[in-house]
Amino acid sequence: MKRTSNRVAPAVPAQQLTLSFEPGLVEIYPSLRECIATGVYQRGLGKVAIDLDCAPSNLSVQLSAQIDSDNKKRKFGVDDLERYIEKTGDTTPIYYLVEKFLHKAEAGHDAALAELAPQLAHFGALLKRAGLV
Questions:
Q1: Distance CA 34, CA 22 (A)
Q2: CA 61, CA 14: separation in Å to the nearest integer?
Q3: Which among 40, 66, 70, 45 is positioned nearest to 56, based on CA atoms?
Q4: What is the mean pLDDT of each run of 10 residues along the chain (133 residues)?
Q5: In whole angstroms, how far apart are CA 23 and each of 4, 77, 83, 101, 115?
Q6: Which residues contact 127 (CB under 8 A, 6 or more apart)?
Q7: Which of 46, 52, 117, 125 is most buried, by the most CB atoms less than 10 A from its CB?
Q8: What is the enclosing helix (H) or strand (E) of 49?
Q9: Quick check: 88 and 43 in contact, CB under 8 A?
Q10: CA 51 to CA 36: how far, in whole Å?
């Protein structure tokens, strides 16, 4: 007669450390403009230009890093970015901005919490020694 085990596999922690060896978007793209331009050219300049209701040559100028005095009116603006994301579904520019600006704030917050934990433990011990807890 075979004996079966009633063991239950150990529970997986709710949070696991994830390591990624791929460079982040901020390391890949030097600017938001480059991030958007890469998405446009991957999808095809002509197709995206049609989606954005502009000429491919104008879109190309808007995405070029060199904006001279003649091309100041043809910048890729916030409304253009919103329309680009809506039409193509490419959310990479949003993730680029989140990584560039929000991760810095989170890193500072996490570092402060890590520094605070041992101090709170020490504070708890002091409260006990003083007879306040």
A1: 18
A2: 48
A3: 45
A4: 52 59 84 95 96 93 74 80 96 93 67 70 75 77
A5: 47, 27, 27, 16, 27
A6: 133
A7: 52
A8: helix 45-51
A9: yes
A10: 14
